[in-house]
Amino acid sequence: KQWYQRRVRGMKRDCGGAAGILAAFKATVECGFSENLHAVLCIAENSVGPRAAVPDDIHILYSGKSVEINNTDAEGRLVLGDGVAYARKDLNADIVLDMCTLTGAQGITTGQHHAALLSNNAQWESCAVSAGLSSGDMLFPIVYAPELHFSEFKSSVADMKNSVANRSNAQSSCAGLFIGSHLFDDFSKPSPIVWLHIDMAYPVHVGERATGWGPALLLTLFGRYSTSGLLSNIAPVLPVDQASKRPKHDEMC
């Protein structure tokens, strides 16, 4: 009972990422969108039962990589890993944005008002920060250094564990890298895929109530693809292909 009261009660706000993606997708379609757009909702039921994950389980995720469970409270990243792998393998997306209430460490890293942003592309990172300032759903970049941080997930029996060894070592960055590892085959190799990971665990709520954080950010960030004049005007200038004078990437998930 004490564990339930401390860890599970009030977790309705933990759906903030999926809720934000769904609301943004609905609004984007209603405003008009000129490119291919997909919304993938990565949803896990956080409950105790006979089919629940237990410590020392090894899961094979959709990416084909194996994961040793060393923290059953790090369940959301498992379905998020499947989601980004699906975006790459089945949807052939070349921009993948995931948004989730991933870590309590996000609040320590970037606070109550700024979500944490992890990206493999500095130009898109800058665009996202600009969109945050314009929309009011603010972001702040966190360290992207897989060569230094991904070893936190080292496992003797699987490709990785699902939680870090050292919780004091850039925990929000590490958690994001877990998701990214199922999008990219190898962090050391260049990838044409642009990846934006947004951890918005704290901005998503005030007390027990939701703030609605997220949809305004996404509508603004991708406003250049919108047929809405308002969104087009406030959207940041996206990285462009100099040969075609249009954004390099025309699909997001």
List the keywords:
four-stranded mixed sheet; disordered C terminus; globular; 253 residues; alpha/beta
Descriptive overview:
By secondary structure, the chain is an alpha/beta fold. It contains 9 helices and 13 strands. Helix 5 (122-135) crosses helix 8 (215-221). The protein has a 4-stranded mixed β-sheet, sandwiched between helices.
Mean pLDDT: 90
Helix content: 25-40%
**Broad shape:** globular
Strand order within the widest sheet? 4-8-5-6
Number of helical runs? 9
How far is the N terminus from the C terminus? 39 Å
Radius of gyration: 18 Å
Uncertain ranges? 241-253
Report the count of strand segments: 13
Order of helices and strands: HHEEEHEHEHEHEHEEEHHEEE
Strand content is 15-25%
Largest sheet: 4 strands, mixed
Structural class: alpha/beta
Report a brief summary of the structure:
This protein is α/β, with parallel strands linked by helices and 253 residues long. The chain is built from 9 helices and 13 strands. It has a 4-stranded mixed sheet with strand order 4-8-5-6, sandwiched between helices.
Layout of helices and strands, plus pairs?
Elements: H1 2-7, H2 16-31, E1 36-37, E2 58-60, E3 66-68, H3 76-89, E4 95-100, H4 105-110, E5 114-119, H5 122-135, E6 138-141, H6 146-149, E7 160-161, H7 171-180, E8 194-199, E9 205-206, E10 209-210, H8 215-221, H9 229-234, E11 240-241, E12 246-247, E13 251-252
Parallel strand pairs: 1-13, 3-7, 4-8, 5-6
Antiparallel strand pairs: 2-3, 5-8, 9-10, 11-12
